[in-house]
Each structure stands twice: as C-alpha cells, then as structure tokens.
Amino acid sequence: MRLVLFTDLDGTMLDLYDYTYDATLPALNALKRNGIPVVFCTAKTQAENEYYREEMGLKDPFIVENGGAIFIPDDYFSFEFECKKRDNYCVVELGALYEALRKALTEIREETGFKITGFGDMTAEEVAKDANLSVEQAKRAKAKHYNESFIFDEPKEKETILFDMISAKGFSHTYGGRYYGIHGKNADKGKAVKILTKLFTQEYGAVNTIGIGDSMNDIPLLKAVDQPAAVRNKKGGWLDISLPNLYKAKGEGPEGWVEVVEKFTLQ
Fold first, then answer.
1. CATH no. for residue 175?
2. Alpha helices by DSSP H, 59-123
3. If we measure between CA atoms, which residue out of 111, 103, 88, 72 comes closest to residue 184?
4. Closest CA to 183 of 213, 220, 152, 144
C-alpha cells in the first residue's frame, strides 16, 4: 500500500524558534529514496512552502495557509481534475481571499478597541524581529493569499469575544502556537488532506496516510489521516487531543518528527 506523509512545519519538521531542520535530513532523504510523498500542510504561505521544498529537494503537492489552498505541480497526477491553473501549478482553492480577511480583522479592531496587529500592519522588518526570521523570510511570510496571521495583545478571557466576532463575520480562526489566524470557513487542513488523499488514491489505488503535527491548528490534519502523530512541544507536552490511535512522539519538534517517520514509514 502506498504511503503518503502529511506534515506540519513550524514546531514539527522545523524547530519552532530557529526553524532549523538538520535533524530531519537523514529520514527525509530515506523518504525520498523510497518514493514516499512528503506533503507540507502548514500555515505558511506559498512562497514559504516553495522555499522549503526547494531547500529539501521535494516535488510533491503542498497545502498552504491552514488549508486555504492546495498547490499541485503540473503533471504530478496522470489524470485531470478541477482546479485553477496558476504558474506551474494546478491550484484547488478552499479559503477566502486575503483582502476580505484583512477587512474583517480591521472592523473587529475598530469595533472593540482590541489590540490586534496583523502581518499586513507590520513591515517585513517588524515581522522578522517578532518571528525571529530574516527579512527575506519575513517577506515570504507576508505574501499571504488565504489567511491573516495576527498578534492578539489582550487578556486570555477576551479570546471568546474575538472568536465570536470572527465567526459572526463569516470566517474561522486558528491558533498555531505563535500567532492567531483568520481564514475562510472552508479553509481547513483536514478538508485539504482529504481532497489530496482522494487524488493519491485515484493515482495509486489504496494509500495509507500519516500525519504529523504539534499544535491546535493541526487537529483537522490529524483527524483526516490513517495514522496521526503528535511531536512533543517546547513546553514538554503534547497537543491536547483524544484520538484512538494517536502516537505521541517522545522527541520534541524535528527529533519527534524523525521518530514518527522511522516508526511508521522506514521499518
């Protein structure tokens, strides 16, 4: 049965704070040698995903901005399916467009007086400083199409008001461990994983899917795969989710990622 690996990046395949992934390289190279697709499923933008795909030598599809869209390289699958042709990709869009998300977030800020700072309010230099990125990395992070990341500088008890207002305006929210996010209601990592899984199944017959994540916004991803796995986070614990076959890696971040890959794909 063909294996397909869906993976989060920040805090999972990449260290949450310095974004290093050296520890993953031997296992990643083994996946490539064995022909196992490695599908990024992340909050990151198209530009960020492309950067890491090139760095890691990957050619597989990827899911951007918490399920906002699926980018499938031209001719990756041997059959045609409904999508939008863009550059060298066949794009399946699920999420709302960035301009509508920015408008909703601005309205919420004006209506409540909440201290909300989106990436669209920040320069690349400011994003770089806050997220511990280079300026070039920050520019890629700001190149959003289906999600707006933002800082919510208010007491925790005000989250409920924020989330209710986001829902009232017709959108959904996420929290990825570093930033909050606003996105379209149809943007969902789980939906995107299921769509891609159907395409892989059409191409290869039966497939066995593995998903690796670390934070709340990975729950839809983990629920959509055959074998979910959570890596240990920086606080020493795991994502608070109850799934009957959830594997909890002993390792943190990239080390946990390697542990999962070796256990479920390379034995």
1. 3.30.980.20
2. 98-112
3. 103
4. 144
Q: Would you call 146 exposed, middle or buried from its count of C-beta atoms within 10 A (0-12, 13-18, 19+)? A: buried
**pLDDT single digits (tens) 201-220:** 999 999 999 999 998 889 99
State how far the Cα of 184 lies from the Cα of 263, in Å rounded to an integer: 35
Q: What CATH number should be reported for the domain holding residue 209?
A: 3.40.50.1000
Residue 8 among the catalytic residues: yes
pLDDT band at 177 (very low <50, low <70, confident <90, very high): low
- Give the amino acid at 155: P
Q: Give the C-alpha separation, 170 to 63, whole Å.
A: 22
Query: Per the residue annotation, which of 8, 15, 60, 218 is the catalytic one?
Result: 8
Distance CA 1, CA 65 (A): 29
* Mean pLDDT value of segment 241-257: 94
Q: Inform me whether the pLDDT recorded for 69 exceeds 80.
A: yes
**133 and 150: one domain?**
yes
Domain residue limits at 43: 2-95+187-264
Residue of 28, 22, 41, 8 lying closest to 265 (CA atoms):
28
**Tokens 């310095």 label which residue?**
18
DSSP symbol at 134: -
User: Among 44-48, 68-72, 130-134, 236-240, which is the least confidently predicted range?
Assistant: 236-240
Evaluated on CA atoms 81, 170, 48, 248, the torsion sign reads negative
Question: Which pLDDT score is estimated for 17?
Answer: 84
